[in-house]
Request: fold
Amino acid sequence: MMKTIFTRDLAKNKMYVVREFAAPLKQVWKAWTEPTLLDQWWAPEPYKTVTQTMNFKPGGSWLYYMLGPDGTKSYCRADYNAIDPLKGYEGLDAFCDEKGVINNDFPRMQWKTRFGESPNGTKVEVEITFASEADLLKIADLGFEEGFSMAHGNLDKLLAK
Reply:
């Protein structure tokens, strides 16, 4: 079983996430960039991801919500800045409402996601930059690391199908 590795660099307001997946690069890339696949793994169980809209291109965005077991919906959006097919993408994440209006009560996160072949399949490296150390710690306190690790486990199951 592969493990998600998280490293925090509080001096630089950054969190690094490294994870290998036992699948070819093209298959992992598709799982991270196609809404029908993202909806199957992105949320930690028992939550479900539901994509409202996704336009995976520079200047485009992904608007989705995480549906809780009690029916609550937590909306998020990712605004894509740069995309290098099969190599990586960059974007700015935020919590928002159902129309995509950003909720400034929560920190935004700048994501740089990189993909590369590895001896076991595909290695994904994510660098997340926050505006401040306090913002990084707030997201960590919300259970980000546990939730993202669980989502990666969901992705392992999806890739094994």
